[in-house]
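Problem 12. The chain below contains 138 residues. Write out its predicted structure in token notation.
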Amino acid sequence: MTSLPVLLKGIMTAEDARIALDHGIAGIIVSNHGGRQLDGAPATIEALPEVVEAVQGRCEVLRDSGIRRGTDVLKALALGANAVLIGGAYIWGLAVGGESGVARLFSLLRNELELAMTLCGVKSVAEVGQSLVQRRPD
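Solution.
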């Protein structure tokens, strides 16, 4: 119905990621819709590695939900996300300061990400890898 690339939001499992790829999806957004849709749904940071592994670089993978700090961005990138969405956080900036509040939010996230990268000894996003995160034992 369209020649535009389509991103599919709400993917939380490897199985769903493979089905999306089979249907020609251009990108996957790992999202639990803020946890509002199903009580007890896993956090997106927990689902991200499984989806990234299933995709194997065949499409972009973005993480939504739970991005509140620059370290959240760093963790998502380290676990294989190509980018993050900031969910409702921009609304907080908008409510507090309008357009300049949103700009301030992006500035804070960027500064926190750069500081976290510096503390981890990486100079660019391209250097961010899985060695920067440790998975908790089950």
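Discussion. The helical segments are 14-22, 44-55, 70-78, 89-120. Students who got a different answer should revisit the alignment rule from Section 12.3.
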